[in-house]
Each structure stands twice: as C-alpha cells, then as structure tokens.
Amino acid sequence: MKRVWSDDQRLSAHSFLVGYLLASFAAGFMLMVHPLLTSPQVRGFDANVLAWLFTLVVYVFTGACVSFLVGMFAAIPAIPLIISLRFVGLTGPAPHALAGAGAAVAATAEVDMLIPFDGNHIDWSTIAVGAVAGLVYWIAFRRVRTVLASRRPLEQA
Length: 157
Description:
Blueprint: H1 7-38, H2 49-88, H3 93-114, H4 124-150
Helix pairs in contact: 1-2, 1-4, 2-3, 3-4
C-alpha cells in the first residue's frame, strides 16, 4: 500500500498538531490565571478543603474551555504565520514568540469584531500570553519532532 505522506511530512504534521494544542492550552490557562493574580479583590481562598476543590475544578474546566476557544480563534492568524516562518527558515524562539504575539493581537481583534464588547481588549497581557504560547509551540514542535524522528519506523510487510 502506497503512503500518501512521506515520513518527514507526517512528522511535521504530528509535531504541528501537538505543538498547537499545547500552545492553546498554555494560552487558555494563562488567561484564566491572569485575573486571579492581578485582581485587587482576591484576598485569598477559604480554608475549607471543599472550597479549594471546587475552585480547582472550576478553573481547570474553564481553562480547558477557554483553551478550546483560543485554539479556534487563533488558528486563522497563527497557521499562516507558522507556515511563513517555516518557509522563510526562521525557526528560533524569538520569531515564534513574535508570531505568537501577533497571532494573539489578530485573534483578539477578530473576536472584538465578531462580538461587540466595550473598549479595546488588546493590552500587554494579551501580547504576553501570545508570546508565551508561541514559545510553548516552538518547544513542543521541536521536542515532538525529535521524539518521533528517533523512533524506528514500522517495518513494512
């Protein structure tokens, strides 16, 4: 049976998918933790164990949902940026961080156009979350590609 994709293309596709999912999760969870750290109303949590457990479950579930939304809205600007970085040959951490920040700004502008919120939501925290997501993508892409490339290919019958 003839393969549709070569081994190198298959490695790139798997590395891209895993890297993009991990970057989306990192951005979603950072967006969930950011209000906790910067809110002046946060005075600490209850000493009750159930309150801690409830808070943990709510933030993990909401973080996963926000990660899905981040991945969905950031895909439109991020995929062309990632492809152009690969095409030009810029594969270092700085270009990926800048591309992540640019994708975050573009995705936030896209959401602001679709859903009429009051005010501008593009601030430094959005840019920082995008830059961290770009770095997470860069680390995950390289690591997954290295791990998959080191595995022996299955012997064909």
